[in-house]
Amino acid sequence: MDTEFHRIKRLPPYLFAEINAVKAKSRAAGEDIIDLGMGNPDFAPAPHIIEKLVEATRNPRAHRYSVSKGIPGLRRAHAAYYARRFGVEIDPEKETIVTLGSKEGLANLAQAITAPGDVVLVPNPSYPIHTFGFIIAGASIRHLPVGQGEDFLRLLDRAVRHSVPKPLALVLCYPANPTAEVVDLDFYREVVAFCRQQGIWIISDLAYAEIYFDEFKPPSILQVPGAMDIAVEFTSMSKTYSMAGWRVGFAAGNRVLIDALARVKSYLDYGAFTPVQVAATAALNGPQDCVDEVRAAYKGRRDTLVSSLHVAGWEIPSPRASMFAWAPVPPAFREMGSMEFSKLLLEEAKVAVSAGVGFGEYGEGYVRIGLVENEQRIRQAARNIKRFLQSRGINSAGAPVPPKRAAAS
Q1: Rounded distance, CA 73 to CA 92, Å?
Q2: Are 96 and 75 a contacting pair, CB within 8 Å?
Q3: Which of 44, 57, 109 is nearest to 277 (CA)?
Q4: Given 144, 195, 321, 326, which is the most exposed site by the fewest CB atoms within 10 A?
Q5: Whole-angstrom distance between the N-terminal and C-terminal Cα of the chain?
Q6: Pairwise CA distance, residues 12 & 15, whole Å
Q7: Start-end of CATH 3.40.640.10 domains in the chain
Q8: What is the pTM of this model?
Q9: What is the distance between the alpha carbons of residues 231 and 302, in angstroms, rounded to a whole number?
Q10: Bridge-partner residues for 202, per DSSP?
Q11: What is the pLDDT of residues 128-173, one digit of tens each?
């Protein structure tokens, strides 16, 4: 019997499995591992959101099948969010749909619009679903190496000219996971103009829309005139409201793409549990102080991480948005690669991070560090890393420690 299933053969082994195995073994041995690897929010949703969930579950009718495309009240709340945050008018009936988190929405949209052999343009490094959602659907992926000092529009133009067949779609993600890179509205204007001319769909992932710092506010691609003709954008409740396990996300934008996603979803699910959707509605419509508080907490963590690692001898850029820092592997360890460095950091410093190569070949040389522990734990991680670096002969300036001279006799 053949057990080499076609789609499974196109999925490589999970690159973080080795790190996870070491982490589990260390914890089983009673070691204190500071886990900055997975982007898993450690905050709880605001009390009024949880209270609405509890209240909704007491309704006996709430435990029936829900609505695949999302309850009307939640779709209206999402449209209202776009109006007040971005100044974009969204038709809640035809231009938005509720998904089981943005990850499910991206994967099901890929199934809806992709034929075997279609070419999809995806940034590299990128969040894995951006690539593998389309690979599972049968697409061929052409990578755009971002974050390498390259001009994105030049890369995009070259990729289109040298792709056969012409690309079906372009995936964007800003603020970027894993690199934390951000773009402005002028960037989106250029990309929209190019893709409209070429007849290429745009799929934008805006999961970190509300996790931003230093007065920078991430724009939406749908703010660009004409973007609704070719673009759909995914957002999520996971990071904004610390509702990662609730699995509530959205797609908004082009009606053709929304309708295609809705048709596929109608065969696959009945939507999220109705009380969860009711609570999500309360989150979007209710007081937004909780969003401000989470944003401030992530900013504090970011500042603590950057400053404390500087003292430890590891210089990392300060991200302007997202819940991650994209950190270059220290020069002394660069030759071993990001995966081996991540394992070494876990084994010797008891700090878990994500190897950059796990997000694509152009992520090599970096690690992703999540702001998913409180400031005290982040300082502890930095102290552990400082001791680790010093044990390898690297001082707080990030340079090798010169050998001590023998005392004169």
Answers
A1: 9
A2: yes
A3: 57
A4: 144
A5: 78
A6: 8
A7: 47-285
A8: 0.92
A9: 32
A10: 170, 231
A11: 999 999 999 999 999 999 876 679 999 999 999 999 999 999 999 9
As a whole number of angstroms, the distance between CA 180 and CA 330 comes to 19
Q: Please list, in sequence order, all residues whose beta carbon lies within 8 angstroms of the beta carbon of residue 207, skipping any fewer than 6 positions away.
A: 102, 173, 177, 234, 235, 236, 238, 239, 249
Which burial class, exposed, middle or buried, applies to 196 when counting CB atoms under 10 A from its CB (0-12, 13-18, 19+)?
middle
**What number does CATH give the domain 47-285?**
3.40.640.10
Structure tokens at 249: 């996300």
- Out of 3.40.30.10, 3.50.50.60, 3.90.1150.10, 1.10.3720.10, the CATH code matching 6-44+290-391 is 3.90.1150.10
